[in-house]
Design brief:
The protein is globular. It is mostly beta strands and about 675 residues long. The protein is built from 10 helices and 40 strands. The protein has 3 domains: about 1-90 and about 330-435, no CATH class; about 95-305, Methanol Dehydrogenase, Chain A (8 Propeller), CATH 2.140.10; about 435-680, 3-Layer(aba) Sandwich (Rossmann fold). An 8-stranded mixed β-sheet has the order 33-34-36-35-37-38-39-40, with helices on both faces. The protein starts with about 40 loop residues before the first strand and ends with a helix.
């Protein structure tokens, strides 16, 4: 499940997709324009580390880093700085090429052609098999036994959708061998969609789609040697109770790595493959009681052997220094907070910069830290307890420019001395008074364990003497992020229509560490929707919010949450727009669902609690079901099961189906959604 974007409407979001703001720790020029008086752009550090220049409100300024005196300049006279060591070495984290991939696979699919690094051979996936071709027209049929159930050089849809596996064939960097997938879908039940609902006749559209608790595809890897024409099998994989994915080469091409995890995704191994024998050895492994991040990044050092590894073993994501031989050298970062990505790695100075949600005032305020590569002298550079972003670090690592703000505090920009975090000079100050378009609030979770944070957005021309409807807009899936701590400078589109909008970071969302993230383990549709309902109850006590006109709206996982909200909390929600939502996790795929819910066989109670049909008879408000008839991600039977439950309970609902629509629904979806909500919630009245 990938969270929907304007260009992609998939359902889920892996933990690896935790919010990583667009930080530019090593950027020497900031091309974005200023958003307000407290922001700066086009930050330039001089090569001699004596000056920094920047734009603010249409003017160019220069600051002497010795005297800390600022002066206005007529032009951008500062010479561009040489990118620091951490910037120059950034490309090493990507690894050596495993070939040139041609074309563009659709969602859930893999490339069907990859050319060897030396350009002499093309590997093709054709008719369930792997075929090699060279420029002379020679063909080598690497496999011939492939068919619809057992196939080579491709992967299962669920691998592409949930493990981001867009590749199924890889060349070794020396172009001498081809590594490719073998997939066994025997026993995996196909889900049959129909295409052509608006035509005279329909055509079947089957997909091997393993649903939670059912038989899984079995994947393995093979290695074909061009010289000997022999194939060896890699000694991992082949069972439906494990996943093999993420194959890549180390930066110097000396090691081919692959990830392995058990079916419930609690145990991760990164393995090195001997491409001559197919044998494997362990590089690093991680275990969790809930679930383990499937694809942690590896940031390599100059020797191309050592790497920075993110581990959750402390309960928060921190970094270790490891090597390809499997040795743990030491821990680099530490603390009771969640890191948010490495910002620079400079081996010459022995320093590492990283961002982290380390503010004790608010867990969503991002801060900048520096630590020694040896794990010593860790320090927080940004001092105000506000949210920081738009970082620019001097080449000598002594100075940092950072923007800071809160939801209702306009941005300001400060120059920090990285040695002790002293706020040396305010470069640009924002207005003291915010626009008042939003506010952040918090409340205790119903189990008393966590502070739950939310943001309330105000309607256009807000008048305290009036009463307004409220929209609970959400996605809320595991590892996602509903709120931002950045300053709100403009109205949301819903607010322009006359709604209040509430966003809540429920239990199970990201950036708060493993305990908070895993608090909804085995309980999707339980504590997550509880937090949203409790947040609505809290803000609806205000006299200007009409507690009788509360809507909940979401798509994909958000559609699931909207359906749960309207059915499970009929006293809270009056209307729900349910966009392409799962209604029972038994209907969704193995990899995503079992990562968070285990299997229905092991967690029957959790699946029952997380089924919307369990609460369908409680519906009192207005439910609007929207779904595409060719949705190969969240199948339409989710909507039909809910409709059947509503019909059985004798409750009324509305629905809209798109005959040729996929997971993104179809043309007019937004109009249909808001026509429904406006009709029942009556903004502006």
């Amino acid at each position: 499940m990938k969270r929907p974007t304007p260009a992609m409407h998939s359902l889920g979001l892996t933990v690896a997709a935790l919010l990583l703001l667009p930080l530019a720790a090593n950027a020497q020029r900031r091309g974005q324009s200023s958003r307000g008086p407290g922001t700066v752009s086009r930050v330039v550090w001089s090569k001699d580390n004596k000056l920094v220049s920047f734009h603010n409100q249409g003017k160019r300024y220069e600051l002497d880093l010795k005297t800390l005196q600022r002066s206005e300049t007529k032009a951008d006279n500062a010479p561009p700085a040489t990118p620091p060591a951490g910037r120059r070495r950034r490309a090493r984290s990507s690894g050596m090429s495993t070939g040139k991939y041609v074309g563009r696979p659709s969602r859930g699919r893999q490339y069907t052609r990859v050319d060897s690094p030396d350009g002499k051979w093309q590997a093709h996936y054709k008719n369930w098999n792997v075929v090699l071709e060279n420029k002379g027209g020679d063909k080598v049929h690497v496999t011939t036994e492939g068919n619809e159930e057992v196939h080579f050089g491709t992967a299962s849809w669920v691998y592409g959708e949930e493990l981001n596996q867009t590749k199924a064939m890889w060349w070794t960097p020396d172009s001498k061998k081809l590594i490719y997938y073998g997939f066994d879908d025997r026993g995996v039940q196909a889900f049959h969609l129909l295409r052509g609902w608006s035509d005279v006749n329909t055509t079947p559209y089957p997909e091997f789609y393993p649903k939670a608790g059912a038989k899984n595809p079995a994947a393995h890897l093979r290695i074909y040697d061009l010289a000997s024409k022999k194939t060896v099998r890699v000694d991992i994989g082949g069972s439906s109770e494990e996943y093999v994915y993420g194959l890549r080469a180390s930066p110097d091409g000396s090691v081919i790595m692959v990830n392995w995890t058990d079916r419930l995704q609690q145990h991760l191994k990164v393995l090195a493959i001997d491409v001559d024998t197919g044998k494997t050895r362990l590089i690093v492994e991680e275990k969790q009681d809930t679930w383990q991040t499937n694809s942690p990044s590896m940031r390599f050092l100059a020797d191309k052997k050592r790497f920075l590894w993110p581990t959750d073993k402390s309960g928060f994501t921190h970094y270790e220094l490891r090597d390809l031989d499997g040795k743990l050298h030491h821990t680099i970062t530490s603390g009771s907070f969640q890191t948010a990505g490495i910002q620079f790695l400079d081996e010459e100075s022995g320093l590492v910069g990283f961002a982290a949600y380390s503010s004790k005032t608010n867990p969503y305020f991002l801060q900048y830290h520096i630590v020694g590569l040896d794990g010593t002298k860790q320090r927080r550079v940004t001092t105000p307890n506000q949210h920081h972003s738009n970082f620019s670090l001097s080449p000598d690592r002594k100075w940092l420019v950072a923007q800071h703000e809160t939801v209702n505090t306009p941005p300001s920009t400060t120059l920090y001395l990285t040695k002790d975090g002293h706020a040396a000079v305010p470069l640009a100050a924002g207005p003291k008074q915010g626009a008042g378009l939003a506010e952040m609030f918090k409340f205790k979770s119903n189990d008393g364990q966590f502070d739950i944070y939310g943001v309330l957005y105000k309607p256009k021309d807000f008048d305290k003497s009036k009463r307004y409807p409220l929209i609970n807009s959400l996605y809320a899936g595991p590892g996602s992020n509903e709120i931002s701590a950045r300053y709100v400078s403009s109205l949301r589109s819903e607010c322009r229509k006359g709604y209040f909008v509430i966003k809540v970071n429920n239990r199970g969302t990201g950036n708060r560490g493993k305990k908070f993230l895993g608090s909804n383990y085995l309980r999707l549709g339980d504590v997550d929707i509880q937090d949203h309902a409790d947040g609505v109850r809290l803000v609806a006590k205000r006299p200007y919010i009409d507690e009788k006109r509360v809507g909940i709206i979401g798509h994909s996982y958000g559609g699931f949450m909207a359906a749960m909200g309207i059915c499970k909390f009929p006293d809270v929600y009056a209307a729900a727009s349910i966009g392409a939502g799962v209604t029972d996790w038994r209907n969704y795929d193995t990899i995503y669902t079992e990562r968070y819910m285990s299997t229905p066989q092991l967690n029957r109670k959790g699946y029952d609690i997380g089924s919307v049909m369990t609460y369908a008879k409680k519906l009192k408000g207005k439910a609007h079901i929207l779904h595409g008839m060719v949705d190969d991600n969240v199948h339409p039977n989710n909507a039909f099961q809910l409709i059947a439950a509503f019909d059985k309970a004798g409750v009324t609902y509305e629905s809209r189906f798109w005959p040729n629509g996929g997971h993104g629904l179809g043309r007019g979806a937004g109009k249909a959604k808001w026509e429904f909500l406006d009709r029942w919630l009556k903004p502006g009245t």
